[in-house]
Amino acid sequence: MRIRIVDAFTDRPFAGNPAGVVLLDTGAFPEDDRLQRIAAEVNLSETAFAHPLPEGAEADWALRWFTPVTEARMCGHATLATAHVLGTTGAATGTVRFATLSGVLSATAGDSGMITLDFPTARLTALDVAQDAAGAVVGALGAEVRSVHQAGPYIDYLVVEVADESAVHRLAPDLTALARTGPRGCAVTAAAEDPARGYDFVSRFFAPACGIGEDPVTGSAHTALAPFWSARLGRDELTGLQASARGGLVRTALRGDRTLLTGAAVTVIEGELLA
C-alpha cells in the first residue's frame, strides 16, 4: 500500500499542513479499525484514504479522512493533498469529484499548479458569550473575545473573533480545558492589521478533542471564515492567513451555499506501508 505525505496550502516543503494520502487499488475501504490505526501511526492532523468509483457513480473517487483518534466529517487540506497526488501521478486530470461524508466535493487543478476545492458553505449562528459552550471556550482561550459563532452542519466548530491580529498570534490556550468544551474545533480569528501584506484576515485553529492540538492550516474552517469575513469586509473573494508555526494561505471565494478554497500542495515523502 503506497502512502505519501503532502504539504497542503503551501508551495514549498515543510510549510502548510501535512497530510497522509493513501490511494487504494480496490473498490472498497479496509475495515475502519485498520484505517484508524494507520492514521494513528502517521500521526498527522488527517490521513486521507481514497478508492476509485465505478463509471456512472455520483463521483470519481470515494474519500475518507481520519485524525489520529477519530474519523473527520470534512477536511480541506487532506482533500487538497489527495487531489494533488491524483494529478501528479496521472490518476486523474481536470476536475475530480469525491464522495464523502459531506456530500460530493470537487477539486479542480489549474494551469498554475493551484487546486480549487468546492465545499459547502458553513452556516453561522451567533452565540451569547455567556452561554455554557461559548463561555467555556472563551475561558480556555484566555483572550478578550468580540463574538462567538457556531458553524455547521458539516463541521462542528466555533468561530471566535478576537480584538486584533496580534491577539491571534499571542494565543496560548489551555488545550486540556478546550478539549472538554464540546465543539470538535475552534477557529480564532481577526482582521488583518495590514491587508497590503497579502491577506485579509488571520486565524488559528485548535481541535484537541480530535487529537489535534493546533492544526497548521485548516481548509474546512475557511468554509466558516469565508462567510464570516465576507459579511464584514463586503467582498466575496478573500485570502486568509492561518498563523500557525508552519503557516499557510487559503484563498476563499464565497458562492452562496458553496465556498471555493484555493491553494497549492507539495509532496515531501513517498513510501510503502508494510504492515
Automatic annotation (TrEMBL):
Protein family according to the UniProt entry:
Belongs to the PhzF family.
GO CC annotations, alphabetized: cytoplasm
Q: PANTHER family per the record?
A: PHENAZINE BIOSYNTHESIS PROTEIN (PTHR13774), PHENAZINE BIOSYNTHESIS-LIKE DOMAIN-CONTAINING PROTEIN (PTHR13774:SF17)
Catalytic site: E46
Taxonomic lineage of this organism? Bacteria, Bacillati, Actinomycetota, Actinomycetes, Kitasatosporales
> Where does the UniProt annotation place the signal sequence?
none
One GO MF term attached to the UniProt entry: isomerase activity
Task: Write the record's keywords in alphabetical order, separated by commas.
Answer: Isomerase
Q: What is this protein called?
A: Putative oxidoreductase
Q: Does the keyword Cell inner membrane apply?
A: no
What the entry lists under Gene3D superfamilies is as follows: Diaminopimelate Epimerase, Chain A, domain 1 (3.10.310.10)
Q: Which Pfam families match?
A: PhzC-PhzF
